[in-house]
Task: inverse folding
C-alpha cells in the first residue's frame, strides 16, 4: 500500500499541495472556477505554522485508525488493501472522526454536514498534491520505501 | 515535532496524554442515552480524555463529541472554583461556611416574611441521583417549588404519555429496534442527538427494519432512512390523525388489543373523522399516496416502534401530535411486545415514598405553572431563587427571564460555569460535575447503570447532595433524613421505591449495561413495560381519548400559543431551534473542540427564502419575532423548507461565543395540552442585515 508521507524539513509552506487538492476536489476541476463553486471545495490537506516550520494534516491511513473505531455508522472503513476509506453515503455527520483523529486530518464539510478526508486520488498515478510539491516534502510511496529513503 | 500533534483541535501548545493504564469506567449523564465511557486521568486526577467503553453492551464503544469535550470544559476559565458573593456588582471569594450561613439566613427570613411560595428553584441541572434525592428531601422539608428540565424539554411528552398509558416513561428499550419491522422516527434527529446509540438503528436497518423519518428538515437521520417524509412545520398532528383515520376505516388495527386493552376508541375514531388523506395532504404537504403507503406499512409490518423527538414535543401544538402517534401505536397493538413500543429518553422510575415523616413535610403555600413564573418574579411575589441550570439561556424569552432574575432580592446559583444565569446571582456556589460524583444514570434502553466517581473533585466544588444537607443544617432543619453518600442515597431511594427495589449498587456494578426497571424485590427485571397487558391508568387500559372525551384536538400552528393573534403579514416565516451533535444544553459552549466543530451559530435558510430576502451564504440576517430580534449568519441549504428558519439554542453572552441566546426569540408560550414551552415553529420575520451585526 502506498501512502502520502510528509517531511517537515523540506516544506516551505508554499501551499501548492493545498491548491492542487482544492482543484482536484472541485466539481469543475478548474482552480479558477473552484472559487466560484457553492459550496467552495475544501482541501483534504491543511497546514499549521509552528515558528519557522510547517506541519501538514493529512490522512496517515493508520493501521489501527481511531476514526474507524469511533464511526458509529461504518462509513469510515478499511479497504481491502488497508487504506482507510470513507463512504459519504453512510456518513451522518456526527463528526466523531474529526474529534478523535490525532492528525486533525478529517475535514468537516459544513454545508453537507458530513466529512471527507484524503482518498489518495486513486484515479491518478500520483496524487496531485504530491505532483505539485516541488520541494519533495510530500512523497507517495510504500512504508518500506519511505523507511529506506528517509 | 515528533509528538502527538493535532494542530486544529489540541492546539499548538497541547501536550501528549500522560500514560494512564487504569482507565475509569463511567456512564455519560448528558442526554439520557446512557453511553458507557472510559475516562483517562492525569497525575492530579483531572480528566485528560474521554473514550467510549467497548465493554458496555449498549453503546459498544461508540460515543459522540459531547462527553469528549468535558476534558476541556471542566478545567477551562469559566469553571467556578470557590463560592463567591456579589459585592457592588463584582464577585468576591467567600468560604463555603459563610455562603451557607448567608443562604440559610435569607431562606429562613423569606419563609417567615413572605411564605414558602416566595422561594423557587430552577433546577434542571441539579446533579446525579445523590443530589436529586437530597434536593427532593430538602424541597419536602422547606416547601420549595422546583422547575426542572420538564418545561423546556419533555413536559408534553411525559404528560400526554402518562394520560394514555399511565406512565410517562419510554415503554421499550432502544435495543428492541432490531426486533421490530418498522421504526417510525418523528421529529427526531437521533443521528446527531443520540449519536452513541444510533448504531442500533443502523443495525436494525441492516436486519430489515424499515426506518421511516418524518421531519421538517432533511436531517442526518433522514439521510440514512429508508423513507423520508418531509412535512410542513407543526403539522405532524394532522399526519398522525390521517394515519389513524385510514387505519381505522380500513380495519387495519389490532381489533383484539383495542377491545381488550383500550378505552375511548369511539371518541378517537370520531376525532379523526374529518382528517381524510386529501385534507391531511393539504395541511402537511405530504402527498396522500405517501400517507396511505405509510399507513399500510405500519399495519403490515408488525411489531413496530415509535421514536419521537423534540421536533414534536417542544412545540406549541405538541399535545395533538404526540397523542396522535402514540394512539396510533396503541391501536396497532404495538405495545408491550418485543420489538414494539415507544422509545424515549424519559426514564421515570417513580419517586421514593415516605422519606420523611408527615409532620416534617412542608407544602408550598403557592403553586404556579412554568408560564406564570415569569410574572410572579416580575411582580415581586418571588423573593429568592435557587438556580442549578442556565435559565437565562435555555428558558424562552431569555431577555425577559434575565431581567426578571435581576429584579429578585436574592439569587443563588449552584453551577459548574460562570454562565449567563450565574452572572445574575448574589451567591455563586461551585458544583461538582457528574464525573466527580458517583450515582445512578438511566438510559434510553430502560436500564439503570451505576457509575463511581471518576475524576477528583475540582477545587472547592460540592455536589448538590452535600450542599442541601449542609444547608439544611445551617437552617436548623432535621439533617438525619439526608443521606451522606451516593451509595447511601441510592440505598435509601431503593428501599422506598418499589419499582427499583431489586436494583442494588452491587447488582448494577456487576451487570454490564445495567439493570432494567421496574425491578421488584425478588430481582425480576422488566425489559419492557405492559407485557402483562395491564396499564397503570385508573381503568387499567390504554386511554385513547382524553378525560374530556375529546381524543385529539388539532390546532393549526399559526393558531397555537405564541403564534395566536400574531400578524402573518408582519411575521410570515417560522423559526425553530434544532440540535447539533457537538453541543448539549449550554455546557459544551465552553469547549474549544465544540467551537472547532460549530464555529458560530448560524441560521439555515432555503435558497428561495434567501433570494426573497436578498442574502447570500454567510451574510448576516436579522431574525425578528414578537419578543425581539437577533442577528445570525446565514447558511443556505436545501435541507430546510421554504419560509422556515432553523438555528441552534446553545449559546449565551457569558461564553466564548458571546451570543444573545436564541431562546430570546421565543415567547413564553406553552403547549395547552402537555405544558411544554415551545422552542420551535414560532412566527418570525427576517431581513438582510448590512453592516455590523448584534
Result:
Amino acid at each position: 500500500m502506498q501512502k502520502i508521507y510528509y517531511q517537515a524539513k523540506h516544506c516551505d509552506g508554499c501551499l501548492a499541495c493545498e491548491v492542487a487538492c482544492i482543484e482536484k476536489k472541485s466539481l469543475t476541476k478548474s482552480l479558477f472556477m473552484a472559487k466560484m463553486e457553492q459550496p467552495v471545495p475544501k482541501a483534504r490537506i491543511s497546514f499549521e505554522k509552528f515558528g519557522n516550520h510547517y506541519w501538514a494534516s493529512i490522512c496517515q491511513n493508520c493501521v489501527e485508525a481511531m476514526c474507524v473505531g469511533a464511526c458509529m455508522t461504518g462509513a469510515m472503513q478499511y479497504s481491502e488493501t488497508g487504506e482507510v476509506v470513507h463512504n459519504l453515503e453512510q456518513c451522518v455527520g456526527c463528526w466523531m472522526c474529526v474529534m478523535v483523529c490525532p492528525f486533525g486530518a478529517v475535514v468537516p464539510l459544513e454545508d453537507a454536514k458530513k466529512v471527507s478526508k484524503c482518498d489518495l486520488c486513486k484515479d491518478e498515478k500520483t496524487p496531485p498534491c504530491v505532483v505539485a510539491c516541488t520541494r519533495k516534502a510530500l512523497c507517495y510511496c510504500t512504508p518500506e520505501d519511505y523507511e529506506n529513503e528517509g | 515535532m515528533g509528538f502527538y500533534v493535532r494542530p486544529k483541535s489540541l492546539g499548538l501548545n497541547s501536550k501528549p496524554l500522560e500514560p494512564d493504564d487504569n482507565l475509569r469506567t463511567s456512564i455519560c449523564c448528558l442526554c439520557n442515552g446512557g453511553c458507557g465511557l472510559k475516562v483517562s486521568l492525569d497525575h492530579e486526577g483531572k480528566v485528560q480524555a474521554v473514550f467510549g467503553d467497548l465493554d458496555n453492551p449498549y453503546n459498544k464503544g461508540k460515543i459522540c463529541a459531547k462527553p469528549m469535550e468535558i476534558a476541556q470544559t471542566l478545567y477551562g476559565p469559566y469553571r467556578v472554583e470557590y463560592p463567591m458573593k456579589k459585592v457592588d456588582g463584582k464577585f468576591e471569594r467567600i468560604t463555603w461556611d459563610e455562603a451557607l450561613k448567608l443562604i440559610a439566613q435569607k431562606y429562613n427570613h423569606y419563609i417567615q416574611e413572605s411564605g414558602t411560595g416566595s422561594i423557587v428553584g430552577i433546577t434542571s441541572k441539579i446533579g446525579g441521583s445523590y443530589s436529586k434525592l437530597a434536593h427532593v428531601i430538602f424541597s419536602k422539608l422547606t416547601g420549595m417549588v422546583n422547575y426542572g428540565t420538564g418545561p423546556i424539554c419533555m413536559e408534553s411528552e411525559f404528560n400526554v404519555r402518562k394520560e394514555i398509558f399511565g406512565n410517562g416513561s419510554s415503554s421499550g428499550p432502544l435495543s428492541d429496534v432490531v426486533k421490530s419491522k418498522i421504526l417510525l422516527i418523528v421529529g427526531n434527529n437521533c443521528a446527531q442527538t443520540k449519536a452513541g446509540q444510533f448504531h442500533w438503528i443502523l443495525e436494525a436497518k441492516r436486519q430489515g427494519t424499515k426506518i421511516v423519518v418524518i421531519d421538517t428538515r432533511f436531517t442526518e437521520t433522514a439521510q440514512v432512512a429508508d423513507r423520508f417524509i418531509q412535512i410542513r412545520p407543526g403539522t405532524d398532528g394532522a399526519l398522525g390523525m390521517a394515519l389513524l383515520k385510514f387505519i381505522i376505516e380500513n380495519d387495519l388495527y389490532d381489533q383484539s388489543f383495542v377491545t381488550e386493552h383500550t378505552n375511548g376508541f369511539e371518541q378517537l375514531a370520531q376525532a379523526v373523522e374529518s382528517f381524510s388523506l386529501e385534507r391531511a395532504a393539504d395541511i402537511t404537504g405530504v402527498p396522500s399516496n405517501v400517507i396511505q403507503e405509510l399507513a399500510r406499512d405500519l399495519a403490515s409490518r408488525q411489531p413496530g416502534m415509535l421514536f419521537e423527538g423534540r421536533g414534536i414535543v417542544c412545540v406549541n401544538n405538541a399535545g395533538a401530535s404526540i397523542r396522535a402517534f402514540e394512539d396510533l401505536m396503541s391501536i396497532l397493538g404495538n405495545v408491550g411486545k418485543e420489538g414494539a413500543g415507544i422509545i424515549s429518553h424519559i426514564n421515570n422510575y417513580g419517586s421514593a415514598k415516605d422519606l420523611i415523616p408527615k409532620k416534617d413535610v412542608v407544602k408550598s403555600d403557592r403553586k404556579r405553572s412554568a408560564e406564570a413564573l415569569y410574572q410572579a418574579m416580575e411582580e415581586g411575589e418571588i423573593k429568592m431563587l435557587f438556580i442549578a441550570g442556565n435559565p437565562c439561556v435555555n428558558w424562552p424569552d431569555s431577555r425577559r427571564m434575565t431581567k426578571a432574575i435581576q429584579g429578585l432580592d436574592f439569587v443563588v446559583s449552584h453551577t459548574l460555569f460562570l454562565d449567563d444565569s450565574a452572572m445574575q446571582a448574589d451567591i455563586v456556589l461551585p458544583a461538582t460535575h457528574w464525573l466527580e460524583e458517583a450515582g445512578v444514570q438511566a438510559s434510553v434502553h430502560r436500564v439503570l447503570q451505576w457509575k463511581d466517581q471518576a475524576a477528583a473533585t475540582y477545587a472547592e466544588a460540592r455536589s448538590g447532595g452535600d450542599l442541601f444537607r449542609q444547608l439544611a443544617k445551617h437552617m436548623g432543619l432535621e439533617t438525619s433524613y439526608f443521606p451522606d453518600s451516593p451509595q447511601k442515597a441510592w440505598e435509601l431511594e431503593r428501599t422506598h421505591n418499589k419499582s427499583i427495589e431489586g436494583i442494588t449498587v452491587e447488582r448494577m456494578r456487576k451487570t454490564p449495561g445495567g439493570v432494567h426497571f421496574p425491578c421488584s424485590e425478588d430481582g425480576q427485571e422488566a425489559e419492557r413495560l405492559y407485557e402483562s397487558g395491564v396499564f397503570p391508568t385508573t381503568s387499567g387500559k390504554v386511554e385513547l381519548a382524553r378525560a374530556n372525551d375529546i381524543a385529539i384536538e388539532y390546532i393549526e400552528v399559526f393558531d397555537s400559543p405564541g403564534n395566536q393573534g400574531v400578524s402573518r403579514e408582519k411575521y410570515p416565516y417560522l423559526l425553530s431551534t434544532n440540535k447539533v451533535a457537538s453541543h448539549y444544553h449550554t455546557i459544551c459552549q465552553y469547549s474549544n473542540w465544540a467551537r472547532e466543530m460549530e464555529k458560530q451559530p448560524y441560521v439555515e435558510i432555503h435558497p428561495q427564502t434567501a433570494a426573497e430576502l436578498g442574502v447570500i451564504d454567510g451574510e448576516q440576517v436579522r431574525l425578528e419575532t414578537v419578543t425581539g430580534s437577533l442577528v445570525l449568519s446565514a447558511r443556505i441549504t436545501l435541507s430546510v423548507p421554504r419560509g422556515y428558519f432553523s438555528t441552534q439554542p446553545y449559546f449565551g453572552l457569558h461564553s466564548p461565543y458571546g451570543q444573545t441566546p436564541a431562546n430570546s426569540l421565543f415567547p413564553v408560550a406553552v403547549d395547552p395540552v402537555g405544558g411544554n414551552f415551545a422552542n420551535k415553529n414560532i412566527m418570525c420575520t427576517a431581513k438582510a442585515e448590512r453592516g455590523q451585526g448584534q
